Structure formats: structure tokens, C-alpha cells
Amino acid sequence: MRIYREEKVNPLGGCLPIVDAEGRLEGLLSETDLLHALATLPDDDVRAALTTHRGIGRWTADIFLTMCLRRRDVWPRGDLALATAAHEIGAAAARPSDPDLAVIAERWAPDRAVAARMLWHHYLRERGLPVD
User: Fold this and answer.
1) Is 41 found in the same domain as 96?
2) Prediction pTM value
């Protein structure tokens, strides 16, 4: 489950996603030096560093890159809301598989994180959910 706490703002200006009740990612990223070190790494190195920890997978690492480090060209792999929204806006005839959606998302490079935010916004609005 993904939870964002507004009072948990990192020194880099983003939020700290809390992976689960044990706060695995929150605990991992509580060190300011680690946050700064991750911010200097390429995307694949950040993913590799984060996913070595139990309970942190590719999707969580991609969300961290997108939301906390504000990387511009990250596509959160495996996100069902993105797949559903891509279908709803007509980018795919049916809800695409993760590999198919990654291919579709290539056309939005180098701004795939922006496209993801727009699709999430669409997904939430279509369901009457808050977008702020």
C-alpha cells in the first residue's frame, strides 16, 4: 500500500512514500546523506539500490524516482491505473499489458513521468476521486 504523509518531506523537496506499516522505505531513506546520494545517481542505479531491500520492488523504485526525485522520464512499470487510463483515453484498444504499455509510453519520452501524472489525473477524475 502506498501512503504519502505531508509532514514527511525530504530535503530534496519531495515526499517519502511509505511502503507498508513497517515503513521499510521510510526507514531506509531517513538518512539525509542517503537521499542526497540517491539524487546524484542515474535512474537504473537508484532502482538497483532500492530494490536490494526486501519489500521494495521496481514499481516502488519508479514511484520514488517520479515523485520524490522528480525525474522527468521515468515510467512506473506495472501500474494498473496507468494501464486503465491509457485504454480509457484511446492509447490502447483494451487495457494493455505492462510490456505493451511500456512500448506505448516510449512515444512520450523524454517526458514519460509527465504523461504518467496526466494519466493518473484522468484515472482519478473519471472515478470521482480527489486529484490533489
Assistant:
1) no
2) 0.76
